[in-house]
Amino acid sequence: MSQLPPCPKCSSEYTYEDGVQLVCPECGHEWTEAEQAAAEAGKVVRDANGNELQDGDTVTVIKDLKVKGSSLVVKVGTKVKNIRLVDGDHDIDCKIDGVGAMKLKSEFVKKA
Asked: What global pTM score does this model have?
């Protein structure tokens, strides 16, 4: 029998296979081997709903965001086109109409 990898969330060694998915009985996390390989290869950026984001995607802001150093506010529902993923705390680099170039956190957007 092949050795199954530990859970990426809680590092439990008691993982088991359920069809094509791997499951952790301790924390309930489910993943595929392909997802784990992609996560190990590079950072995967996900939106507020857990969808994977890629360069060039269009996203929608899900919360009013104050622009630091300005009185401007990026309103809920603002569509941001052609995003670029970068490393760091603010992992989305974009240009918003009426505001200009900004960096956003992926937890405040959803894929459109």
From this structure: 0.62
